[in-house]
Amino acid sequence: RYFHFCKLPGRVMGIRLLRFTSVVIIVLLLVAGALTALLPNIKDDKMPNLRREPKTQSQSALDSFTLIMQTYNRTDLLLKLLNHYQAIPHLHKVIVVWNNIGEKIPEEVWNSLGPHPVPVVFKVQTVNRMRNRLQNFPELETKAVLMMDDDTLVSAHDLAFAFSVWQQFPEHIVGFVPRKHISTPSGIYSYGSFELQNPGFGNGDQYSMVLIGAAFFHSGYLEDFQRQPEAVYALIDETQNCDDIAMNFLVAKHTGKPSGVFVKPVDIRNLEKDTNSGYSGMWHRAEHLLQRSYCVNKLVNIYDGMPLKYSNIMISQFGFPNYANHKSKM
Amino acid sequence: RYFHFCKLPGRVMGIRLLRFTSVVIIVLLLVAGALTALLPNIKDDKMPNLRREPKTQSQSALDSFTLIMQTYNRTDLLLKLLNHYQAIPHLHKVIVVWNNIGEKIPEEVWNSLGPHPVPVVFKVQTVNRMRNRLQNFPELETKAVLMMDDDTLVSAHDLAFAFSVWQQFPEHIVGFVPRKHISTPSGIYSYGSFELQNPGFGNGDQYSMVLIGAAFFHSGYLEDFQRQPEAVYALIDETQNCDDIAMNFLVAKHTGKPSGVFVKPVDIRNLEKDTNSGYSGMWHRAEHLLQRSYCVNKLVNIYDGMPLKYSNIMISQFGFPNYANHKSKM
After folding, report:
1. I need a labelling partner for A31 at 20 to 30 A (CA). Which of A5, A156, A235, A260 fits?
2. Chain B positions in Cβ-Cβ contact with residue A164 (cut-off 8 Å)
3. Domain A65-315, what fold?
4. Measured between CB atoms, which of B198, B268, B329 is closest to A319?
5. What is its EC number (chains A, B) (predicted)?
6. What is the ipTM of this complex?
7. Has B244 been annotated as catalytic?
8. Closest chain A CA to residue B312
9. How many helices (H) and strands (E) would you count in chain A?
10. Sign (positive/negative) of CA torsion A257, A259, A261, A264?
């Protein structure tokens, strides 16, 4: 080809082209060099660091979590809570599961009061189902999910600490509300809290579930939840309850260990009474607790065994809020 | 042969022998049957269950621990503590490291007041060294070691719970006394407790060591300790101090994680003032804390880096002693 160029009219044209070509090549090399310098450093694909070092605002998938909050008939509480939760450290995004069928999402209000620290996605539902919040949402980018009921306020301090605990126990449900089952001589299980008899393994009480209405867990469990026996979905739909018990069964079965790790909250509040809607949560229904005992037994049938395991580990934050909260008389 | 027997004098002799032989055979079969019925059932060789189920008195290597208590000039406290500790659940054996050089062990007293629930071995030492307790004693049969100072009384409840926690975190030092190091702009480290500035990772305080004078740890670490750089032994001998800091360095280096897990004690007592010997512990020496800061910096040199990592996890027992000790205002 070189010789072809040389055949063009005159040596002058050939030299110009050569100069032009050289300039183009040099410019391209400079641009390439600049691009190389701008490439991000290769980061080690580390496991979540056990020690939470102060981070920049880079909210990578390992270092941040997605809040999933399902809401029904308490939009005033929802908006109050969103103002609080949108500013929690390490929050990546909020997914609001909108169970107010046929009602418009408050997107206008939300946008008019922007800008907001993180994206908030409203997922409009077609049927008001308790298990809507357990879908594997495509908007979910983080490994960690924080699931909160739409009437529960947990302090930022508690959430920041519990998130760091979850990072050390990523296969567990790490949360603030412990519950247990007990077995009876008849073999029938009963569901409850501290008011029930201790399971009898040494001193003190035990818990075998951590409720997902105020807890961190791995987003992979939402995927797993899509692959459960149909009877599980039927049970949750029939009772409009027990999705959290089902999740604990799922996690316990998966790990062979206690499903949850209980973090004792310093400041957790139920805002139910503050709502203008007059709507009070499902747990006020007369049959609520009986339903949950019923669910435990049904799930044992469905899963052909009792996978839940007991734990008596209670985790608190060292030196917070009281800087000497670990002192004992010595 | 049958025909040979028949050749014996008379058919009568033959019939008797036949009858006798048959009886012998039948008896042998009955005995064999009885032995088979008495054979023990084959048991699964299970991993230690995360849930501590009530056990029989079979103290297998996985389900029990060895108490190692070093003693110097406080035999009255030693005997008081032995009465308490000898009855702790899941205790396999006690090893008393006798640093009273030239003094007779109280074996006569001990035996005269028997029988005792567990074997107690007195290991007579030739030199009064702090690190004598960190030998890899041949009498040690369990995976778990409980190390206690000879002036520290921890309740059985606390020990039973902490042992169950250790079983869930076997690579950590699980104990009741947290401490930390802090770094300073000069790069020099300082050792201390909650009175020191927080390391500055979010809210609250952090600890980076759990002292071995009241803690469970894996017996394998005693083996590892025998293989440390000579400079470590020299440092401990020079200061008669810091063996516990050295152990924390060892464990942190080994695991790449925080060395300890802090269990908040309900009832821990220092019996120092109760001794008749007039001897008060090493930690009353004026230079004690300064020595420990010195040790931290020396160990960083020896190990060519700071392996200690921070944790803010504080573990308590759910529902004990107060059965609703997990309740928060909700």
Report:
1. A5
2. 202, 312
3. Spore Coat Polysaccharide Biosynthesis Protein SpsA; Chain A (3.90.550)
4. B198
5. 2.4.1.223
6. 0.80
7. yes
8. A318
9. 9, 13
10. negative
